[in-house]
Amino acid sequence: MGDEALCDEQASRHDAIDGIVVELRPFSRRGSDPIRLQIGERPWRPTPDTRVVEIYEECDPPTAGLIEQDGRLYVFDCIDGRGSRISFWAYTQVDAIEVSRLQNAAGDALIRLLDGLFADRAYMAALAYDNLIESSAPINS
To answer: Rounded to two decimals, what is the model's pTM?
Structure first.
């Protein structure tokens, strides 16, 4: 089965998270569907239509969590600058298995899992100033 046929087959699968059904898109280790990031929005809610599904690190502001955009799930993480005026954020698409692992991890295990999610795939990075996105760019690992 070719990549396109497999993608079409997997794109029709639905899973429920926290009682809400969201469509999960296929995931490829070569990259993921890019998340939309809007200048002037909060890094943990990078567009007005982004839905926060779960926060993994409860801080003010939240520094890691799961968001849904256009029926796809993405994990976000503040990778540098927590508590500073300037911070750097990373976003990558996750599948249902990865979401389950994230929901069951805490402490150092969560940190290792987040680090691993960004280590072997392309992701989006954002620069924020005063907790507002200033710029973004794709990062190819």
So the answer is: 0.76
Domain ranges of the chain: 3-139
Cβ atoms of 102 and 116 within 8 Å: the answer is no
Residue 114 to residue 26: CA distance in whole angstroms: 19
Q: What is the DSSP string of 37-100?
A: --TTSBTTB-STT-EEEEEEE--SS--EEEEEETTEEEEEEEEE-TTSSEEEEEEEE--HHHHH
Q: Which of 7, 39, 23 is CA-nearest to residue 137?
A: 39
Band (32; pLDDT cuts 50, 70, 90) = low
Q: Position of tokens 């968001």?
A: 67
